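Need residues for this backbone.
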C-alpha cells in the first residue's frame, strides 16, 4: 500500500507540474563538525563548489543551488537536532555527516522523509546495509580500506596484530571487517585496545601498557583524526616506537598530516617509521587548478586549513548532488513535499514536527544519484550496488625523516603494487607480483621487524610438563627442578632460536600416575598453557588441536612379550640353507658328476670299466670335490676347466654355510607365541598399555579391540609383573607401548623382547598453540640439533649409561641363505659346464662323421646302407671307445686325427 501511495503521489506531482517553470532555488543541507580536521577542509571546499555550481550556466538552468550548513559539534545528539532543523527548511538532500555514528542516526530520518543522505566522510562499512537505502557514500568504504590493510599485513608475513580503535560504530565496525579479512588470509586480530570516544591520555597510556603483555608487536590504529596523533606521542614515551614494533594507521593519519599548516618536528619524531593509507586521488589538471585556488583561499582567509583528501571529496559531493538535481528538474521542474500521515497524528504533541515533510521526489533523486557517472577532482565517480563509490584505491605512505613518502599503492583489482593501476597495461597487470618500495620502520631500521615477541620477562611462556611417575628419565621433577631427556632437547633447541624466549615450566598431573597427554594438549589449545614439552606423541587427533614441532625422536607402537631361547635341534645343520638352496646344490653335484664322466670317459681309465663301477666312480668323484684330496684326477682339458669353475662355486658355498651355521649356533634366537599385531588381535588375551599413553585409544578405536581386554599399567615394574604372570594368572600376554619406553624397559630385562615390527609410525614433538611462530623456529632448531649430532649425544647421555638399549626382536625363523643370493654363481657354473659338454660333443661328432665317410669310401658298393638307428648306435659305440683306440682306427685308415 505504501508503494502504491508513493507512486500515485509521484504521478500526480509529475502531471500537475509538467510545463511549469523550474524553481528559483533548491536547498541542500550540510551537517558536519566545522571545527575538526575533516570539517576545516570540507566547509571551504563545499563553499567553493557551491560558487562553481551557481556560476556554471550549463547546470541547473538558472535555479540557484543553496547549501544550509549546520554544525554537529562531534555529538550525535546535537547533530540529530541540527538535522531536524535542516529538514524543516525543505532540503532535497543532506551532505554529511562525517561521523559514522551520526550517519546511522540521520539515515533513519532520511529513510522516513525520503531525503537522500550523501556522505563524503562516513566510512563505516555497515552503512551500506539494505537498512539504509537513502544513504550514499562518495568516499572510500572501510570495507576496502580493511581489505587493503589485511593485504599489507599478510604481505609482510605477520600473523597477529593488535588493533587500537575508538569504541563507537566507526571503530567497532571497521575492526570487525579487518578481523574478517585477516581470517580469510590465515591471520587474526589477537587483541583489541578499545578507547572511549572522548579518551584521555591516561586512557591511552593504560591501554598501551596492557597491550605489551600480549605477543604481537604489530599495531593497527583506527581512530578519529582530530586526536589520533597523540597516541603515537604516548607510545614513544612508553618505548614502543622502536625496532621491535610496527605501527600501521588507517587514512585518518594522512588526513591529519595533510591538514597541518607546518611540520612540527617533535610530533614527527614520534611518527618515524609508521605506515599509513591515503585515499588515492589521481593527478589531473582539475586537481592542480584546485590546489592553486586553495592557496589563494588561504591567503584570503577563506580557508584556515591545508587541503586534505576530504576537501576533494566534499567538493565532488556538491557537484554530484547538483548534477543529479539538474537531471531531476529536467523531467519534473517543481519540487514538492508532502506531510507524513504518521507525523500528522503527532500534530498535538509538543515536539513541533509539523514542519517535517517527506520529499516527494526523493526516490527519483536517489535513483538519479546512483546513476552518477562523471570525472571530478577525485577521479571517476560512480556508485556500486551497495551505494558506495567505486573504489579508487589507496596510497601506501611511510613516514621517514620528517617526510611522508609514497611506497606503493593498493587497488581492488591489483592489490599491492608499486605503480597505480591506471599507469599499467594489461600485460604488466597479468605478471604483477605484490610489492612495495623499501620501507623505514620505527627506530630507523630497514629490515622487516619480526612483529611479535613470544614472551617477556613480565609475562613468560607457561609451558606444561607432564608430571611422570614412570619412565622418569624422559621428564620428571627432581629437587624442585624439571629435568629429563625431553627437557634437555627443549633447552638445547631454545638456544638456537634467534631471540629470547622467557619461559616457566608448570607440572601437569597429580604425581600419582602418569597424566593424560590428550588432556595436556587440550590445555594448550585452550590457552591454559602456551606450550607443552615432554614425551608427547604426534598423533592425528592432537594435530587438529595444536601445532607440533619437527619430531625430535622417531617412535611407533610396538609389542613386547616374554621370549625364550630356541631349543637345540638335531637338524640344526640344515638351517643355514633354505630348501630350494639344498635342492639346487644337490642337483649341481649330479650335473657335475655327469659332465665330468662324459668329458673323462674316453681319456681317463678311472672313469672306465663295468657300468656299476663307472656309476659309483662318477658320483664319488663329484662329492669328493668337497675335500682337498681327490681319488681321481681329471685328464681332459675341458674337464679341468669345468673343475676350476666348480671348485670356485664350492669354495663360496662352504664358506657361506660355515658362517651361517656358526651364527645360528652362537647367536641367541628369541621366540614367542605372539608373532605380531595380527596374532595379538586374533587371540582373546589381555593386553597391557601405559597409563596416559595414546596406545589405549589406538587399540580401542583403530584396531577395534574390546576395552575389556585392555589393562592399564603404571610403571616398568608393573610391566614385568604382568608379563611374568601371563594371561592365565591375571597378567597380560603382551604390552603395547611406544618404542622409546620399550627400549628402556628391555635394557635390563633380557627375558622379554619386541615381537614383530612397529605397527605405527610417529614421533615425539613439542606442542604449541595454533599458528605459533615459535613452533616453526623450534622445528628449525631441532633439525640443526639432528644435523650436528647433538640429539644423539643427548640420547647417549640419558639412555646409554651402561649400554644403549637396542631392539631384541623375536624371530620365528633363522636368517637362512637362499637361492636368490647365489643364483648368479650357479648360472655361471652351469653355463660353463654346458658349453664344455657341447664342445666335446661337437668334436666327437666331427670325428665320427670323418670316420664314417672314410669307411664308406673303402667299403664294397654292394654293402647295404645303414639305418638311422644304426648310425646313432654306431655313434655311441664310437665315443665309448678310448681315445687311443680312436687314434689307432684313424691311423689304420689314413684318416687325420683331430
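Answer:
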Amino acid at each position: 500500500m505504501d508503494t502504491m501511495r508513493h507512486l500515485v503521489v509521484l504521478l500526480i506531482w509529475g502531471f500537475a507540474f509538467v510545463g511549469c517553470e523550474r524553481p528559483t532555488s533548491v536547498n541542500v543541507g550540510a551537517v558536519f563538525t566545522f571545527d575538526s580536521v575533516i570539517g576545516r577542509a570540507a566547509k571551504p571546499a563545499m563553499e567553493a563548489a557551491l560558487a562553481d555550481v551557481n556560476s556554471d550556466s550549463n547546470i541547473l538552468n538558472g535555479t540557484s543551488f543553496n547549501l544550509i550548513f549546520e554544525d554537529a559539534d562531534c555529538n550525535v545528539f546535537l547533530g540529530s537536532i541540527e538535522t531536524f532543523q535542516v529538514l524543516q527548511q525543505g532540503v532535497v538532500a543532506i551532505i554529511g555527516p562525517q561521523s559514522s555514528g551520526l550517519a546511522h542516526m540521520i539515515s533513519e530520518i532520511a529513510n522516513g522523509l525520503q531525503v537522500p543522505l550523501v556522505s563524503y566522510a562516513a566510512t563505516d562499512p555497515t552503512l551500506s546495509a539494505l537498512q539504509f537505502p537513502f544513504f550514499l557514500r562518495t568516499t572510500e568504504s572501510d570495507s576496502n580500506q580493511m581489505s587493503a590493510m589485511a593485504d599489507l599485513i599478510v604481505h609482510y608475513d605477520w600473523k597477529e596484530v593488535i588493533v587500537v580503535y575508538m569504541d563507537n560504530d566507526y571503530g567497532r565496525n571497521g575492526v570487525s571487517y579487518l578481523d574478517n579479512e585477516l581470517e580469510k588470509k590465515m591471520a587474526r586480530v589477537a587483541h583489541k585496545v578499545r578507547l572511549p570516544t572522548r579518551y584521555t591520555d591516561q586512557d591511552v597510556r593504560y591501554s598501551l601498557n596492557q597491550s605489551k603483555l600480549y605477543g604481537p608487536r604489530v599495531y593497527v590504529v583506527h581512530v578519529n583524526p582530530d586526536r589520533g596523533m597523540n597516541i603515537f606521542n604516548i607510545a614513544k614515551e612508553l618505548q614502543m616506537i622502536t625496532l621491535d614494533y610496527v605501527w600501521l594507521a588507517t587514512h585518518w593519519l594522512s588526513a591529519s598530516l595533510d591538514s597541518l599548516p607546518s611540520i612540527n618536528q617533535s610530533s614527527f619524531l614520534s611518527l618515524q617509521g609508521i605506515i599509513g593509507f591515503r585515499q588515492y586521488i589521481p593527478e589531473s589538471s582539475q586537481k592542480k587548478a584546485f590546489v592553486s585556488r586553495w592557496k589563494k583561499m588561504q591567503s584570503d582567509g577563506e580557508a584556515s586549513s591545508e587541503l586534505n583528501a576530504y576537501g576533494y571529496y566534499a567538493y565532488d559531493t556538491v557537484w554530484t548532488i547538483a548534477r543529479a538535481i539538474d537531471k531531476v528538474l529536467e523531467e519534473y521542474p517543481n519540487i514538492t513535499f508532502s506531510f507524513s500521515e504518521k507525523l500528522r497524528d503527532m500534530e498535538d504533541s509538543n515536539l513541533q514536527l509539523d514542519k517535517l515533510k517527506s520529499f516527494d521526489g526523493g526516490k527519483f533523486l536517489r535513483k538519479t544519484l546512483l546513476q552518477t557517472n562523471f570525472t571530478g577532482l577525485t577521479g571517476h565517480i560512480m556508485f556500486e550496488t551497495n551505494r558506495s563509490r567505486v573504489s579508487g584505491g589507496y596510497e601506501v605512505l611511510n613516514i621517514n625523516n620528517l617526510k611522508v613518502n609514497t611506497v606503493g599503492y593498493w587497488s581492488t583489482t591489483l592489490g599491492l603494487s608499486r605503480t597505480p593501476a591506471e599507469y599499467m597495461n594489461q600485460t604488466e597487470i597479468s605478471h604483477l607480483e605484490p610489492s612495495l618500495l623499501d620501507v623505514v620502520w620505527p627506530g630507523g631500521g630497514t629490515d622487516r621487524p619480526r612483529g611479535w615477541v613470544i614472551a617477556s620477562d613480565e609475562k613468560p611462556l607457561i609451558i606444561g610438563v607432564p608430571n611422570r611417575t614412570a619412565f622418569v628419565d624422559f621428564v620428571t621433577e627432581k629437587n624442585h627442578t624439571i629435568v629429563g631427556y625431553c627437557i634437555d632437547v627443549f633447552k638445547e633447541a631454545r638456544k638456537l632460536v634467534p631471540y629470547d624466549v622467557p619461559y616457566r615450566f608448570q607440572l601437569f598431573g597429580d604425581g600419582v600416575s602418569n597424566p593424560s597427554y590428550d588432556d595436556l594438549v587440550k590445555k594448550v589449545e585452550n590457552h591454559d598453557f602456551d606450550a607443552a614439552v615432554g614425551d608427547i606423541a604426534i598423533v592425528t587427533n592432537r594435530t587438529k588441536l595444536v601445532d607440533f614441532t619437527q619430531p625430535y625422536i622417531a617412535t611407533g607402537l610396538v609389542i613386547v612379550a616374554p621370549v625364550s631361547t630356541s631349543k637345540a635341534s638335531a637338524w640344526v645343520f640344515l638351517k643355514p640353507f633354505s630348501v630350494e638352496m639344498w635342492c639346487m646344490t644337490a642337483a649341481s653335484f649330479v650335473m657335475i658328476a655327469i659332465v665330468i664322466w662324459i668329458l673323462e670317459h674316453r681319456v681317463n681309465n678311472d672313469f672306465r670299466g663295468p657300468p656299476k663301477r663307472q656309476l659309483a666312480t662318477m658320483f664319488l668323484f663329484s662329492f669328493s670335490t668337497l675335500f682337498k684330496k681327490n681319488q681321481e684326477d681329471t685328464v681332459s682339458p675341458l674337464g679341468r676347466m669345468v673343475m676350476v669353475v666348480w671348485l670356485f662355486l664350492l669354495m663360496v658355498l662352504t664358506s657361506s654355510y660355515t658362517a651361517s651355521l656358526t651364527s645360528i649356533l652362537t647367536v641367541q634366537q628369541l621366540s614367542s607365541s605372539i608373532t605380531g599385531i595380527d596374532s595379538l588381535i586374533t587371540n582373546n588375551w589381555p593386553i597391557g598399555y601405559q597409563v596416559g599413553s595414546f596406545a589405549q585409544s589406538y587399540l580401542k578405536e583403530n584396531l577395534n579391540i574390546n576395552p575389556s581386554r585392555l589393562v592399564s599399567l603404571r610403571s616398568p615394574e608393573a610391566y614385568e609383573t604382568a608379563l611374568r604372570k601371563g594371561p592365565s594368572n591375571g597378567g597380560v600376554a603382551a604390552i603395547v607401548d611406544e618404542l622409546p619406553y620399550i627400549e628402556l624397559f628391555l635394557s635390563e630385562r633380557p627375558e622379554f623382547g619386541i615381537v614383530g615390527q612397529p605397527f605405527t609410525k610417529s614421533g615425539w614433538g613439542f606442542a604449541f598453540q595454533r599458528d605459533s611462530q615459535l613452533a616453526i623456529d623450534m622445528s628449525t632448531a631441532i633439525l640443526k640439533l639432528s644435523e650436528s649430532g647433538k640429539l644423539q649425544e643427548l640420547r647417549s647421555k640419558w639412555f646409554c649409561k651402561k649400554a644403549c638399549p637396542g631392539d631384541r626382536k623375536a624371530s620365528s625363523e633363522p636368517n637362512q641363505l637362499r637361492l636368490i643370493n647365489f643364483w648368479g654363481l650357479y648360472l655361471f657354473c652351469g653355463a660353463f659346464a654346458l658349453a664344455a659338454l657341447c664342445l666335446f660333443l661337437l668334436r666327437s661328432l666331427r670325428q665320427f662323421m670323418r670316420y664314417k665317410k672314410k669307411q664308406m669310401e673303402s667299403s664294397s658298393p654292394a654293402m647295404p646302407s645303414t639305418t638311422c638307428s644304426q648310425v646313432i648306435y654306431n655313434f655311441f659305440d664310437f665315443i665309448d671307445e678310448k681315445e687311443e683306440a680312436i687314434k689307432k682306427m684313424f691311423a689304420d685308415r689314413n684318416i687325420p686325427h683331430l
